[in-house]
Amino acid sequence: MKQPKQRQGQLERVLHSLQQSAPARSQQEAWDTISDVLQQVDAVDSSGTSWTIPALNASSSRPYGDGGTALRLIGHHIYINSNGAYRIVDLSSGELLPIFDKANAAGTRFAEVPSYRMPL
User: Fold this and answer.
1) Which of 63, 37, 64 is nearest to 51 (CA)?
2) How far apart are CA 58 and CA 108, in angstroms?
3) What pLDDT score does 46 carry?
4) Strand, coil or helix: what is 71?
């Protein structure tokens, strides 16, 4: 079983790899980058299952802002703007704590929707 310290180390490797990755030009490219990084880092949960993210069109994915998508994970949410900028939010504190933002290929920063709440 993965201990919290090991999981934190995996998350740090994922975030570092995302920081080093090329900025995305589209929502799909951002999703592809995040998915590829999860595979490259080979992060696994306590049962040994590889970390993955839901598809943009998965039933658990929700609309976010102007053409973007919100992805629900066990301990995080990922918000991807239609232009490829994205944010990862940690849920472990019981609050929505942004832990990573990535601007898109044009340098446009992530556009938060301040009143947004992830629907159930």
Assistant:
1) 37
2) 26
3) 75
4) strand
For residue 66, the number of C-alpha atoms closer than 13 Å in the C-beta half-sphere is 5
How far apart CA 99 and CA 37 sit, in angstroms, is 16
Residue type, 74: I
pLDDT, one tens digit per residue, over 17-71 is: 999 999 999 999 999 999 999 999 887 777 888 889 999 999 999 999 999 999 9
Strand partners, 68: 64
Distance CA 61, CA 68 (A): 10
Three-state DSSP at 88 gives strand
Q: Is residue 51 a contact partner of residue 43, using CB atoms and an 8 Å limit?
A: yes
